[in-house]
Amino acid sequence: MLHNPYARFAFSMLIFGSNGIVASHIPLSSYEIVLCRTVLGGSCLLLFALWQHELGQLLHQGRRILWLLIAGLALAGNWLFLYEAYQQVGVSLATLLCYAGPILVMILSRFVFGEAFTVPRVAGIVLVTLGMVCINGVDFQAHGLSWGMACGFLSATCFAILVISVKKVQGLSGLVSSAAQLLIASVVVAIVNLSAPVPDIHLSLPAIGWICLLGFINTGFACCLYFTCIQALSAQTVSICGYIEPLSALAFSAIFLGETLTLLQWLGAVLVLGGVGVAELRGHRIHVQRN
Fold first, then answer.
1. What are 153-203's pLDDT values in tens digits?
2. Long-range contacts of 199-208 (CB under 8 A, 24+ apart)
3. Contact (CB, 8 A) for 218 and 12
4. DSSP string, 145-190
5. SS3 of residue 287 by DSSP
């Protein structure tokens, strides 16, 4: 089955959609979870890139290597804020908040690359904005901007910076770019962890197993699947099948974590995912390292 690029891509999206569920079983802070994921996943991708003899591409980047460094910083921020949002507001809401990232990319692209605002893009921005109001409006009115909500928005912002930075880097395969981003991010996350207080933690064998699953399978293996099949698929196929990730994240969080959304929040979820879909399916899809 996994010889079929469609099956490989769909399977990788399902794996990515389970990230929040796997992380919920790891008794570490969000910073420590991200450190484990970047180190283990980055090591996997580095070994795979060495096996494919692709690392030499980095020697031809010149000044553009700065954009790769920025991408690594943005990836670190994207994951740090996302996993903190997982712990603060749950997998469902964190996933939906982060999915505002593609819309932020479209807005920033207007000023960074001079890309015009098309009717589908404007419609997508409006739909996502309405969806965010439905998802967070009641809580925001009652309690103000919570730290979990802020982390979700910051994760989306870092995602947008990540996409812009990756677009500035040319001549790198997705595999090499992702390996470099993960290893750069691991250094940043390690520094963040060193500056934070470290409680005494005794990891059980099951917890270590979940950490290995997140790093090796949900990051290393899934990214290898993603980048080895993506070139064989059309942009429209990638755009449509990409929605397996957030939809599976919502389903997994409901089944395994018992998280539920209100009717208004479900309406917001439809608006957010639909808005991104309207904007992306009629535009150009940018392929970057997945969250």
1. 999 999 999 988 888 877 777 788 889 999 999 999 999 998 877 667 788
2. 201/27, 201/28, 203/27, 203/28, 206/25, 207/25, 207/26, 207/27
3. no
4. S-HHHHHHHHHHHHHHHHHHHHHH--S--HHHHHHHHHHHHHHHHH
5. coil
